[in-house]
Amino acid sequence: MDKIIISDLDVEARVGVAEAERAQPQRLLITVELERDLRQAGRADDLLATADYVTVARLVIEITAAKPRNLLEALAEELTQAILARKLADTVTVEVRKFSLPKTRFVAVRLTRNKKTQSAA
Predict the structure, then answer these.
(1) What predicted TM-score, i.e. pTM, was given to this entire model?
(2) Residue 105, domain CATH
C-alpha cells in the first residue's frame, strides 16, 4: 500500500499521569503514516485524489492542543480515529514521542488502525 508520511511534527501538549506534568505544555514529536492507494493522485496530479498533508497536520495540531490527557496512548488513539473518520487513509499509524524519561532519547507510543479496527472501537 502507498503511504504519505508526516515525520516528526513538532507540537506542544499537556500530557502526563502526574498533575505537575500536565501543568505546562511539553514538546512532542508526532509522526503520521497514511496508507491509501495513491495511483490516481499520481496519474492525475490531483489533490482531491490524495490526502492533503497540510489538512492532516492541522488536524493533529488541533486535536493535540484541545485538552490535557494522562496518556500518550489516548492522544494517539484520538488522532487515528479522527483521521479515519475523515477518510484521509485506509490505514493510519501514529507515533507520539515524549521527552520526559531521564537517560532516554524519548518514550514513544505507536498505534496502527484501519477502517476495520475503527468500526470495532
Answers:
(1) 0.92
(2) 3.30.1130.10
